[in-house]
Every structure is written in structure tokens, then in C-alpha cells.
Amino acid sequence: MALLEVRDLTKHFGGLAAVDGLDFDVPEGEILALIGPNGAGKSTVFNLITSYLKPTRGTITFLGKNMTHLGMHEVARKGIVRTFQETNLFREMTSLQNVILAHHLRCRASDWGHFFYSRRARKDEAEFRESAGAILDYLGLSPYRDELVRNLPHGHQRALEVALGMATHPKLLLLDEPFTGMNPEETDTAIEMVKGIRNRGVTIILVEHDMRAVMGISDRIVVINFGKKIAEGKPKEIQHNEAVIEAYLGKEEDGET
Amino acid sequence: MGQLKSLRTIVMFVFVVLYWVAFPLYFRNSNYHLGVVITASILSCISLGVWLTFSIGRINIGQGAFAAIGGYTTAILTMKLGASFWLCLPLSGIVSAFVGLLIGIPILRLKGVYFAMITLCMTEAVTLVFLNAEKLTQGASGIMNIPRPGALTIGTITIIPAYQAGHYLYFYYLAAFLLLLVLIGLWRLNVSRIGWIFRALRQSDTLALSIGINVVKYRLIAYGICCFIGGIGGSLFTVSMQNIFPTSFRVTDSMYFMLYCFLGGLDYLLGPVAGAFLLTGSFEALRVVQKYQEGIYACLMIALMLWLPNGILSLRFRKRALGKELKPEG
Amino acid sequence: MEQIIVNGLILGMLYALIALGITLIFSIMNILNFAHGQMYMLGGFVVYYLYGVYHWNFFVALGMCILFLAVIGAFFEKFFFRRVLRVARREESSMLLAMGTALLLENIALISFGEKQRGVPPVVDGVIQILDAYVPVGRALLFFLAFVLIVALLLFVQYTKPGRAMRALAQDKEATYLQGVDINRISMLGFAIGASLAGVAGGLLASIFPVFSGSGTAISIKSFIMIIIGGAGVVSGAIVGGFVLGMTESVGYGLIPGSMTYLLIFCAVILLLALRPQGIMGKPWG
Q1: C-alpha dist (Å) from residue B244 to B34, B69, B232
Q2: What average pLDDT does the segment B179-189 reach?
Q3: Does a structural domain hold residue A189?
Q4: Which of C199, C196, C38, C211 is nearest to C108 (CA)?
Q5: CB C250 within 8 Å of CB C8
Q6: B320: phi then psi, degrees, rounded to nearest 5
Q7: Percentage of chain A lying above the pLDDT 90 cut
Q8: How many contacts does B have with C, using Cβ atoms within 8 A?
């Protein structure tokens, strides 16, 4: 049984099908890339998996349980967390505070406990602070611990998003264009980091336009166009797939390298 | 920086002494003067509830409704069932919170003007309810001659003595104590993880949801507490005035609670307290212009928005970035 | 039954006028005019004094109404809201300012006119009969006048240059600015028109409802209810909201005792918000 099973996933906006009858599996420990020309529906897929949007049709099964009707925070609680394409962070807080907050799912103390500052709450806070520090370290963000997010350069904000994702200890992490705006060196470093996250036991799905990064990091690739899956397989297979090449040539894509 | 901090501590110490010792001692025989501070204290309490809803990013112009609900609950229970005030006080809070949660479930997902509009309508609606439920509330005539609090006893031990006629100081310290409790409670809330969750809610719901925060639950917690505080404030107010009418808390009062928060500064826990005291005090000082009260408040609101959009306390205590410490301001 | 419907329609038309005013201001400037009810009230007083006391021609009185409130609206925009919108960091600031203007107008009215309730006789006498309903000619006139004003406004917004600028401003402030439109002037015009709509409604309704300095709050609340029902910021929503409220009020007062009607309306509104937060005509958000 795969970690995530997507069956017949469909989303209509008005008359338009942004996602149409999508089927794919993600086995545990895999890095799966979801690629396709602009507007193919990739972000919509993420929105559907995390319950930001409700599907018109289809099911999403995670660890054998149907997730389709859960709320966003419940999906997160089950272990699926995402980053966003437009950076979504708590801008008026520091990096450290952002990451500490993201440990929310790992709270052992109850709300009352936190209010009365019980011993468990104190332990939680201490633990989260340490863990947050370690995560920031891992992503090279330590110098910016105490910096307000709105003052951070864009690249660091994106890294911070990944930090938030890591803090939740997800089983499945959805990365939305993590390498956007990076030069080749930065991309290579980032690829290693993402692999490192996978090695800690996190399954990863990523949406990305940077083909070099995608080829370098993915175990498997799913290609969608107009909301439908047009190809699926290992990177080498996809590279030479006729339908894929046509889909990309059909639209003038400037994300390719 | 250290100097500023010790200056602040000194100023706070002075105020505390004034409030708890000097003023009540000096004016202990003047019901009028005590009354002003009692009113200011209670209004501060109620406004602190509004402050809490601000902290989750909602503009709450409906607190008057919950003060009224609290007040009427106490009045009815005391008059019709002879219940002890000490029971009515928390009960009023609970009733208000309950109503608040009921209404909160549909309306809390609204934001900005939409939320504000509906809370304003709510105040009016509650006024109408109390105006119309004549059997229970005696309608426009209101409920009067509400008895003073008896003693709070457990077994044979008297924890709080009964009110004795002529000793209005009783209410002074009662109100002061309530304010203190509310302040401590909200401070604790603000400083804890829950406070951080509230701040997160204010900045990005979506992000909060995606890291597993049950946004709906926490919004309800904040709003429920706000209504609870409104209820107990209304309860104490009713008992100290010994009466309540449908007009005791109207739309204008709901607006004033917001004004107090704003005047003091929304970023500071003590903001509503500063605002309420400043306005209540200066208003009493200008008693001669009673007729113009609304007008003066109006000009104040307008002037405030034109020149001091971030409140009075922002002049003195520049708000440090939430970054450096986990300590709250104010 | 017809009587209730006819009353509802007449009231609906006049309420739609009020709703359009507040919607105009909201859609252009994103400000909720808390003083809308007070502007309505002042319109009533203008007509009371000019037409009721000094016996000017009714239409001239209405015209003065429009003028008077337009000046107030323009003043508020230029000297209060423009500055606060530019300077304030929080959304609440303009709201608090709007509340301040409402209190100010109410207090000025209270000091100037006292608390006494006043009224104005109907403009025209006589009654006409439509099916089973009796309609005083005066009210039919009000219905007609409101209709004319609403149509005039819609035409203005649709076909004139400033009107189109207002629509553009409501849709996209940046783009409108880039097209060289003087945003300040259009905003001022919009506020003036919105205010005068409230005022003229107050003037028209002066012969039906009592005019007194405290009547503003209730009308403001009704305005809010109308735009919540119909959908804020949308012209069609304002009209729908106006008629829905007018009909509901008429039916309610006809069938249920006193203020229970509005209590039920409030509950219905909260229910509506729970099920369809954007109102009947509003665009879905979120």
C-alpha cells in the first residue's frame, strides 16, 4: 500500500476542469516530482491534497485512510504538510518564532497546560526552541533567527517555509516550487537538503519548473497537462517521452534549462 | 534602554500605588469620586475583551451586547431567584460566553467590515430582545433595586464579607480586583503559546491551518473569552448601579469600547485600561458639558484617527519588535 | 395581503436608495459609512424645516437636501477620510473615523434640534386603489421619485465619464490611477453622492416616518443589513437588499407584534451569513 493514493482526482472551476481524473501513487520514502507546463494544474493538486480546496470528484487516501473530507488542519495533523508558491509566512514574527509555532502538532501539553505554564508546557517550549534552532541550522538560516520575516530576502523566506514544513514532522511534505529563483549552485545545495529531509523519513512530492533540479532529485515523475496525467515514470523515461516533449513545446515554456 | 525600562517601572509603580492605595484612601467617603474610578475599572475590563478579539484580527463592535446579557442575567437571577451575587458573577460570564460562541460559529469566519457590521447589528438585536421580553426583563422600565452583594461563605468561613451600606469602597476594590484578575489572565494568555497562536491567526489563517492549528477552535476560544469578560463586567456594573435598562448598553457603548482600545493603543495590553480611564476621567472632569459628551467623543475619535492612529501609549513606549523577547508590551 | 405587498414595494424602493448610497461609498473607497443613518436623518431635517416649516416647494427642499448632504459628504472625504486612508496602517482606523463622524453628526443634530420627534405632511393628498390595496398618492409619489433617482444614478454610473471612473475605481484602484484619473476628486464625488442619496431618502421618508436626531442609528443598522443580505459593494446587491428588507419589514410588521420583526430579521441575517456569507448578489470571497 502506497503512502498516498490519489484516485480520479477532479476539480472543476465553473465549467473548466483544472484537474481531471488524476491517478497516482506515492510510495513511502520516495521523492516524486509533479511537472507540467504552466497552468497544468499542479498547484491545484497540492491544494486538493491538503484540503485547501474540495475535489469535485475522486479520493485521496493516506496511510489507508480517506482524507478527502477532512479539514486543512486535520490533514496537517495526519502528517501532510505543504509549502506555498507565494511565500506564506508570519511576517511580523522572527524566523525562530515562525518555526517554533510550526511545532504546534507536536505539543504534548494541552491548551490549559500552556495557559497555566505547566511543566509539560515548559518542556514543550524548551524542546521546540531547541528543535527550531536545529532546523534553522540545517537550512543555513541561523544568522537570521531573530530577524523579522518581512526583512528577509526572498530566497531565505523560501528556505524558512521549508523549515516550517520540517518542524511539523510530516510524513508527507509537499514542496511548491522550492528551487524557484535559485542559481545552479544554490539549487545543488537545496537538492542535497531536500534529499537529507527525505533521508530523515519524510516522503516528498515537489512541484517544480527547473528541469535540471527535477531530474537530479526525483525518484519518479508524474507529468500533467490540462489537469490530466500524460506520463509517469523514472526521470530517464520521462525525458524521452514523446507526449511530454510535445506538451512542453506546445506552450512556449521558459522554465526549462 | 535600561533607563527607559526603569522609568517605565517607576511610572507603573506610581500608578499602582495611586490606584490601590492613595486614591481610595483619600476619597473613601466620596461616592462620586469612587464611582468614577469604579466605572472606569469596569469599562476597562469590558474593553479588554474587545482587545482580545482585536488580537485575532477581528473588529468587534458588539461587546455592549454581552455586557447587557451579563447584566440582565445577574439582575434576573438575583431578583427572581434570590441567587447570590458571587454565583451570578461567573454565571453571567458563562451565559454571555455561551451566546457568544453560538453566534461566533457562523460569524467568526467573516473579516474586516463584514464582521464589524454584524457585531454592531448584534448589539442592537440584544437591546431589542431585552426591550421586548417584558415578562422577564420588564422591558423599557428595566430592573431596579437590585440587591447589594451578600457575603461569600464556604461553610462557616467568610471569604468575602457582605456589602455594608455606605461603604462604597467595597465596590472600588471589587472592581479593581476584577480588573486585576482579567489583566493577569489576559497577560498569561498573551504570553503563552496560545497568545502566539492568536498572533498567527491574525497574520495568516491559511498558514496556521497548514501547520495544523485548528483555526476555528482558537477563534472561538478568543471570542468566548471576550464575551465572558463582557458578561462579568456587565454583571458587576449592574450590581454597582443597582439597576439595568435596555439602554444601559447600546450601540454607542459598543463603539466606545472599541474607542478605549484604540485610544490606549491596540498593541498594548494596558491600552484599553489607559483609554477607558483617560476618557472616563476627563469626561467627568468636563461634567458641565454633559450634553456634548457624544460630540466630544466624536471629535476625539476623529482627531485620534487623523493624528495618532496608533494610540496614545505608542507615544511613550515605542513597541519593540515582537522579535527580541517573548514578553508582552504594556 | 396586497396592502402588505404594496407597502413593501414602496418601502423597498426607498430602502434601495439608502442601500445604494452606502454601497457606492463602500465600493469606491472601501469605507463603511457609519454615518449613513445620520446623513439620512439630516436629510429629513432639511425637508422638515424647508418644506414643513418654511413652506418651500417640496422639490426645491429635496434639492437642498441633496446639496446639503453632498457638501457634508465631500467635506468628510476631503478632510477626514482622505488623510486617514493615507496615513493609517490598520483597517480599523477608517472604521473608527467613520464611527466618529456618525457620533459627531448625531450630537450636532441633538444639540441643534433637540430630541423632539417631528414630521412632515404628505406632499400630495388623496388615495388611489390598486387591487385590494389603498395607496396614498403621496407615497406613490415618493415611490416614483425614488425610482427616478435610482435610475438616474444607474445611468450616471454607466454612461457618464465620472460615473465610469467610479466603477473603474471600484474594480481596480491602481489601474484607474494609472489611467490618469484624479482619484481624490472621484472619491470626493462618490462620497458626496452616497451621502446625498441617504439625505434625499431621509427627505422623502420624512412624510412617513418621524424625524428626530436619534433616528440615525437604526437606519445605519438597516443599511448594514441590506448590504449584508444583498452583497456589499455590488450595486445590484444594494437594490436586492433594499427590496428584501422593505418587503420583510412590511410582512413582518403586518403579521408579528412590534420589534419581534427585527429580532427575527437579525436571526435570519446571521443564518444567511452562516450559509452564504457573500449575500445574494455578492461575489464569493475567501
Answers
A1: 20, 10, 14
A2: 94
A3: no
A4: C38
A5: yes
A6: -70, 150
A7: 21
A8: 140
| Number of domains chain C contains | 1
Option in B211, B214, B321 nearest A164 (CB): B211
- Are B46 and B123 a contacting pair, CB within 8 Å? no
Question: Is C72 a domain residue?
Answer: yes
Please check whether residues A7 and A35 belong to one and the same domain: yes
CA dist., res. A145 & res. A137, Å (int): 9
Asked if residue C225 belongs to a domain, the reply is no
Residue A135 lies in a domain: yes
For residue A242, the enclosing domain spans: 1-79+173-178+204-257
- Distance to chain A for B297, nearest Cα, Å: 32
ipTM score: 0.86
Beta strands in A63-150 (DSSP E): 65-66, 80-82
Summarize the confidence of residues C98-127 as an average pLDDT: 87
Q: What CA–CA distance (Å, rounded) separates B292 from C232?
A: 33
Q: DSSP class of residue A103? A: G
Find the domain containing C107 and state its range.
Answer: 2-214
pTM: 0.88
In a domain, C178, yes or no: yes
User: How many Å lie between the alpha carbon of C80 and the closest alpha carbon of chain B?
Assistant: 7
State which residue of chain A sits closest to B207, comparing Cα positions.
A88
Q: Answer yes or no: is A20 within a domain.
A: yes
Average pLDDT over residues A92-103: 91
Comparing CB atoms, the residue among B54, B128, B292 nearest residue C262 is: B128
Provide the residue type at C40 as one letter. Answer: Y
Q: Which is nearest to A196 in space by CA: A138, A128, A132?
A: A138
pLDDT exceeds 50 at position B323: no
Cα–Cα distance measured from residue C18 to residue C13, given in angstroms and rounded to the nearest whole number: 9
Q: How far is B6 from chain A (nearest CA, A)?
A: 25
How many separate domains does chain A show? 2
